[in-house]
Amino acid sequence: MNIGQAARDSGVSAKMIRYYEATGLIPKAARSYSGYRHYDERAIHTLRFIRRARAVGFSAVQIKKLLSLWQDRQRPAREVKQLAAEHLTEMKARISELESIAQALSQLIAHCHGDERQECPILDTLAGENSTKEFLEAHGASHMHARARRSRTK
Amino acid sequence: MNIGQAARDSGVSAKMIRYYEATGLIPKAARSYSGYRHYDERAIHTLRFIRRARAVGFSAVQIKKLLSLWQDRQRPAREVKQLAAEHLTEMKARISELESIAQALSQLIAHCHGDERQECPILDTLAGENSTKEFLEAHGASHMHARARRSRTK
DNA sequence: CTAAACCTTCCCATCGCTGGAATGTCAACC
DNA sequence: GGTTGACATTCCAGCGATGGGAAGGTTTAG
């Protein structure tokens, strides 16, 4: 099976399949005489595993561990659970970070009348010109850089 | 004032100040004879504005708009509020996306006994081998890539 | 034979930074 | 004057997970 079919069957784009191979997440695919990559059912299965793991937010590094745990029949469920739990903890941290930012932002918005007048507490606060100014400093959260979503349904 | 001092005063790193200049977020700084950038109080003020706006998660593009609104004495508060509200809406969307992923993940974790046995519902689900498999497919959320945080305090 | 539909590799862009290398400048001290 | 150290400059590269596209080779159907 060629890469296009593998992509359709697994739900992972051909681009990403090549990328996963290049970064060592999946082994190098066998090639046909003319250089085309070739995939079997097992490979598709792995790709689907990766897609689902990405869907629950695991990073490439974590997925690599999950894959090796998956392939290791001897591994105790404990190890998997621990990895997943660590990931969940990180996710929760990101969520509360975002929530505190959203909270701060809605405070700001709530205080702005939002009409045709020029006076605006949002800008004033960002400029550090009013009493609420320390309020932002308190939210040191600034350091997440959640990316804009890509529309899968483009 | 040189860039280093400006960085200390504004809380924006020298690297970032140069970056903001290069990307047009701030105007080109005046230079000394030997090429050193020079900043006045007004510039520091702007940098602080940017830092606070980043702290509440505004993107560079949004900040650019905010800056021009800030500098425009004629602008109605309405415009600012609208921009902020749009941003808040996006943030909330990201948050619920993350929350649904976290939710799915904790379900998975909850179903895993996590002891020395090999049987593990987490891996089984990722592999698509059990009844909960569609459960993941339902969470099409996968597409946020919130970045790992950077430690500011280092 | 030709056209379409594949495939290949390679490079570029995203976003908001951080790090480093190579080099130049300035101020203080001996 | 010379040296040292703390500055400054530019440029280049990388992070993470993708998408886009160019330039070219392959395969398959008509």
Detailed description of the structure:
The structure is a homodimer. The longest helix of chain A has about 35 residues, at about 75-110. Chain A is elongated, with a radius of gyration of 23 Å. Chain A is mainly α and about 150 residues long. The first copy, chain A, has helices at about 5-10, 15-20, 40-55, 60-70, 75-110, 120-125, 135-140; strands at about 30, 35-40. The first copy, chain A, has two domains: about 5-70, Multidrug-efflux Transporter Regulator, Chain: A, Domain 2; about 85-140. Chain A has a two-stranded antiparallel sheet. In chain A, helix 1 crosses helix 3 (about 40-55). Chain A has seven helices and two strands. The interface between A and B is large, with 72 and 74 residues.
